[in-house]
C-alpha cells in the first residue's frame, strides 16, 4: 500500500486566541458544514477565508477541489491551491501536494518531488508524512529500498498517533514474529482511523490465519461499515 488519504479537516485551530479572528471563524464554519455534509456551504466559507490569504483556507479549497466537495473534482486546481498554501507555510498542504505527486493526479507523477514534500512536512512533525516516507523506503521509491529505514519511519509515525503508521509498524512486528506486540499497535490504530482505513486493515488481516488477527480483522470491517459515508 502506497496510498494514504489526505486530511480534510480544519482541526488545527486549537491554538485560536480567546477572541478568534474573522478568518478563524470562517474556517470553523466551513468545517462545520463539511461535518454536516453540506459541502457547497463549506466551500463558500473557505473561499471567504482565503480572500485574506490564509494558508489553511487555501489548503481546504484544495481539499474541496480534490474531493469534489461543492465543486467538480479537479486535482489540477487542487494542486494550485495546495501550492499556495504550502508556500505560506501550511504543513498539511505539503502533505496533500506530495500525495498528488505520489499518485500523479493533477500534477506529473514524480516520486522525487513527492518524497521531498513528505520530508519537508515530516521535519515539521507531520506524522502522516513519516508514514509515507516509510512506504517510500520500503518500496524503493525515490530512495533505495531499505526495510530497516522503513521500519524506523513506521515506528515514528505510530508513536505520533497516525493510524497508518500504527498499521505498518504492526506489519513489521508480525514479519518478525512479534504478533502480541503487533496487537497493541492495531488496537491503537482504532483510535485514529476512518472508514477506508478500517476496511483496508480488515481486508489485510482477514486471511492471515491467526485467530487473534482474525478478531482484529472482523472488528475493523464492522467499524468500516459503521463509519461508511463519513468525510475523512
TrEMBL record:
InterPro entries: Sel1-like (IPR006597), Sel1_AlgK (IPR050767), TPR-like_helical_dom_sf (IPR011990). SMART domains: SEL1 (SM00671). It comes from the Bacteria. Pfam families: Sel1. This is Tetratricopeptide repeat protein. It comes from Xanthobacter oligotrophicus.
Amino acid at each position: 500500500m502506497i496510498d494514504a488519504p489526505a486530511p480534510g479537516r480544519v482541526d488545527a485551530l486549537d491554538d485560536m486566541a480567546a477572541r478568534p479572528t474573522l478568518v478563524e471563524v470562517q474556517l470553523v464554519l466551513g468545517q462545520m458544514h463539511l461535518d454536516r455534509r453540506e459541502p457547497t456551504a463549506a466551500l463558500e466559507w473557505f473561499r471567504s477565508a482565503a480572500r485574506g490569504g490564509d494558508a489553511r483556507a487555501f489548503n481546504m479549497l484544495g481539499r474541496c477541489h480534490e474531493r469534489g466537495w461543492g465543486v467538480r473534482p479537479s486535482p489540477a486546481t487542487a494542486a494550485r491551491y495546495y501550492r499556495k498554501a504550502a508556500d505560506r507555510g501550511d504543513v498539511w498542504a505539503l502533505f496533500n501536494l506530495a500525495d498528488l505527486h505520489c499518485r500523479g493526479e493533477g500534477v506529473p507523477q514524480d516520486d522525487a518531488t513527492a518524497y521531498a514534500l513528505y520530508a519537508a512536512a515530516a521535519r515539521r512533525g507531520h506524522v502522516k508524512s513519516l508514514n509515507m516516507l516509510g512506504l517510500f523506503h520500503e518500496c524503493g521509491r525515490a530512495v533505495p529500498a531499505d526495510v530497516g529505514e522503513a521500519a524506523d519511519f513506521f515506528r515514528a509515525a505510530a508513536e505520533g498517533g497516525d493510524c497508518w503508521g500504527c498499521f505498518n509498524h504492526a506489519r513489521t512486528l508480525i514479519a518478525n514474529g512479534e504478533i502480541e506486540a503487533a496487537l497493541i499497535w492495531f488496537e491503537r490504530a482504532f483510535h485514529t482511523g476512518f472508514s477506508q482505513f478500517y476496511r483496508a486493515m480488515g481486508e489485510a488481516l482477514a486471511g492471515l490465519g491467526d485467530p487473534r488477527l482474525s478478531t482484529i480483522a472482523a472488528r475493523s470491517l464492522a467499524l468500516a461499515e459503521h463509519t461508511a459515508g463519513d468525510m475523512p
